[in-house]
Amino acid sequence: MRVLIATDAWRPQINGVVRSLERMFEAAPDFGVTPHMLTPEGFRQVGLPSYPDIRIALASRRHVARRIAEFQPDHVHIATEGPIGWLTRAVCLARKQAFTTSYHTRFPQYVAARWPIPESWSYGFLRRFHAPAAGVMVSTATVEAELGSHGFERILRWGRGVDLRLFHPRMTSVLDLPRPIFLSVGRVAVEKNLEAFLSLRLPGSKVVVGDGPARADLQRAFPDAHFLGPREGEELAAIYASSDVFVFPSLTDTFGIVLLEAAASGLPVAAFPVQGPSDVFAGSNAAVLHEDLRQAALSALRLPREAGPELAARHSWQSSAEQFYGHIRRVAQGPVARPAPMQNVTAFANARGAEASAPARSPA
């Protein structure tokens, strides 16, 4: 089975969307799938306004159609609602090919944090994007309920995972800082609400791993915090295991893969009782969720460090991939019309009745 995954979020970006898709790509052969990524690579790109580190593709439907035709997929999965996503959607509609989509980011809240745009407008934009999909994959029950309340249909559950071979407790520390060490990992951007963490009166040290458009301003505003920049792999895993509490101040994440990475590393978590942390840590003793983030951070110091690895052990990337490709195979084998032949790429790329590409937007 040949599966094309279309995404606006890809390397060199470092975020949960990229990490999830990389894992699905790597696991594909285990499920009899030949994968292909359709990303901004190979297209001219520009930086997203207010977030230049995120590059969006300046592609045409004809060029995207040609890329799809070259691969001849049995199924198409559209991962993001940016230019690549909209153009791929248009090609699938013109070709009458069933496709699935996924919802990774609380886009309405993300937009509202930057511009005075009503969330209802953003939900309308997203509903239009996902409406033709044979299935919309979401990470948790809370996201499913939220989208359902806004009129989304055919919602499928696709959980996330953690690499337990990489993220685990360690005996030695790579951080030579006053303790306790409170750590935050992720994009350094306004929607991550990092100021709520950095402004807390806490003993010891505050460490931030990651990069983004808000980093320079936050470093100036909080000179006592330690900004380590982006880290990956073994280096990142060692930083997790060297810290004492993971503080997750975001109010908008749908899941937060970093939560599982922290838990797997034996790091107690402090967060607000919102979507994402509430879903991940429901019924566990691995986190303190409280409206007072300072109280949560201090209380998390008293949690047993073994609770996190026990929780993380229930979330593997293999089970995540099993859900992902299981949904795709059921849709591909369902009672849907086979796609039109792709011999004349230009003809179907310009087919009348297909929806035109949307304004250039990119996911978080």
Overview of the structural elements:
The protein has 364 residues and is of the alpha/beta class. 36% of the residues lie in helices and 16% in strands. The chain has helices at residues 16-27, 61-71, 83-95, 107-112, 119-130, 141-149, 194-198, 215-221, 233-242, 257-264, 277-280, 293-300, 307-312, 317-332, 345-349, and strands at residues 2-6, 34-38, 45-48, 51-57, 75-78, 99-102, 135-138, 155-157, 181-185, 205-209, 226-229, 245-248, 269-271, 287-289. Strands 2-1-5-6-7-8 form a six-stranded parallel beta sheet, with helices on both faces. Helix 1 (16-27) packs across helix 14 and helix 2 packs across helix 3 (83-95). The radius of gyration is 21 Å and the shape is globular.
Q: In short, what is this structure?
A:
The chain is an alpha/beta fold and about 375 residues long. The protein has 15 helices and 14 strands.
Whole-number mean pLDDT: 90
In one word, what is the shape?
Answer: globular
Tally of alpha and pi helices: 15
Question: Helical content, roughly?
Answer: 25-40%
Euclidean distance between termini CA atoms: 30 Å
- N-to-C SSE string, H for helix and E for strand: EHEEEHEHEHHEHEEHEHEHEHEHEHHHH
- Indicate the low-confidence ranges by residue numbers: 336-340, 342-364
Give me the Rg, rounded: 21 Å
Structural class: alpha/beta
Question: Care to count the β-strands?
Answer: 14
